[in-house]
Amino acid sequence: MNSWGVKKRFKNLLLLSVILANLIFFLFPIIEFVLTSFKPSKYLLGNLFPPIFTLEHYHKTLPLFIKPLKNSLIICGMSTFMVVVISIFAAYSLARFQYKRREDIAFFILSLYALPPIVSLIPIWYIGQNLGLLDTHVFLSIIYTLFNLSFTVWLLRGFFIGIPIEIEEASLVDGCSKIGALFKIILPLSVPGISVATIFAFIFSWSEFMYATVLTRVDAVTLPVTIGTQVSFQTFWGKLTSLTSLAIIPPLLLSIFIQRYIISGLTLGAVKE
Amino acid sequence: MKKFKKSIIEKYLYVWLLLPCFAVISLLTIYPFKYLIELSLYTKTFYNPGKFVGFSNYIKILLDPTFIQSIRVTLIFVSTSTTIELLWGLGLALMLSKVSGRAIQIVRGCFIIPLILMPIAVASIWQLMYFPVEGIINVIFGILNLPSQQWLSTEMALPCIILVEVWEFTPFTILVLLSGIKSIPLELYEASAIDGASGWQNIRYITIPLLKPFFGLCIIFNIMRQVKTFDVVYTLTRGGPRKATDLISYEIYQRAYRIYKISDAAVISVLLLAAVIILAIILVNHMKKVSGGG
Description:
- The complex is a heterodimer.
- Chain A is built from 13 helices and no strands.
- Chain A is an all-alpha fold.
- Chain B is globular.
């Protein structure tokens, strides 16, 4: 073998080992954490690989898991439904009607994406208190609707603009109303786009912690809040690791369906794949 | 009459379609912001309705060493993490662009996992990593015969928090830049190969200049997210030790819900809002460029 081939081989080997090292760096903490949830109480800490696997922590956490799981599902379900419906109408208006300042309105909605949630936390807490809505499912889902709104409107608008306008015009000539065209033409054609927006909205609501921890106490406590209360100076590792491992399953499963769109979605459609 | 009604509905259909969206937006932004500004002009605490003091709250906060410390921590956090994420992301994206076929799909899938985890889960994971007594990192240090460390101590806490941010979100930069590299037409490289350019020259004179809009995108999205960071600090360090990790979001939370100085928290919120408007303008301008004016 000539020296060029050796050099190239060496280069490839180096490349692959660096990539592998990176993969280990990004995955090792997660793997180690999930492994810990299967370690028996005696060997929870101080080793990297459990000598025996056990489900004891899962048996113990399951009853603790049910109520926040139910709350999370209710709140995320409601807010995802609301945000997707509201966004479909708004995105349709911003994509398919001609009027003055349309682009300005669209970009205003986009700009809300930069808003740090903490800024509105105090006033929203007061609103909740005055209306007696603290610790309710409805209040938290309305707030998640707001925080996902700019994202979903912008994403759906991009998808709607991508649908050839001729299809819609043909249906309008055939006597279909504008709103009819939305339901009969646009929606069926943008099922992939709507699914992506729905899954993203769901994952974001599922993960939200700050509002959930300030606005709930007993009745509407979500999974992230339950996890948050487990992390303290006196951490019960078995409980924490098993609870967290269960809670991260739904977003991971959902993300498989939108794998191709994740970066496109996270950059609000600016990166096309 | 009926016809008239119908025409109103149809003529202004675009308004009706936008209405629910703006109802939600105004309910949860306009009123809160107005209220926030009001609060910032009073001396309100949870127990005391307070009295009107005008802008003296602002002066007090701007001179408050805790507030200045929190700005300092936030700036260090944002600038360091953005820089590391960008350099690391670029390096790995360049390497990954050399790998082809199925392997890259698997690697991509793996990099998505930290991005999709909820921040509170990330915090739990790193709580286990950093735990002083037999936490994962110290166990590894033990295997390597290195002394155990107190990871979340005053000096180490901020770098540790930055590591968590970098760990969670470098994959975002990697994947954005990888898409960017793939979008560069291959002909450019072919042309430079004819001119006898080396691999490094290709990267320096073709890849990096053409990635510029993607760098912009990464920087904007990274900074926007880093300014919002709350969960990790809340769980891992509570802003401590000795305010070493007191990010701005946590400082506001702390003032409002730990020491109940609502007006002080409102002042900082207003200041943060003003700073974020600049970020939002940069974001909008960049997206206008990228989407080619929609």
